[in-house]
Amino acid sequence: MRFFFFYLLVSVSLFAETPPNYSRAKKELLIAWERVFPLPYGSILSEDPLRKGITKEKRGDKKVVWVYNFTVFMPKYDRNQNEPKARKEGREILVYFLWEPSESEDPYRIQLGELNQNL
After folding, report:
1. 74 domain-assigned
2. Fewer CB within 10 Å, N or C, the chain?
3. Residue 104's domain spans which residues?
């Protein structure tokens, strides 16, 4: 019985620290983007365009931040009776998606362009 409890405790602690993969991060990016920005992005063109993978950064004493990078297509928009209408042209934007598991209220942040290490 003690062995089972110890095994359960160890397995839960191992899985609690694992970051979500890129497929889960794509879903969470969409949710976080809608919360922060008024207009949606067109599509995700590539995941991990910088070829760094999912990086783990330690900030401060106990803060751990998982950093993902994406390239998204942001279309230009026209206003059509106060409704935004996406055009075909737009631009590619480098997006950093930061996940901080210790933050319970708002664990996800988005940064566009160059990564600011001070966040």
Report:
1. yes
2. N
3. 20-112
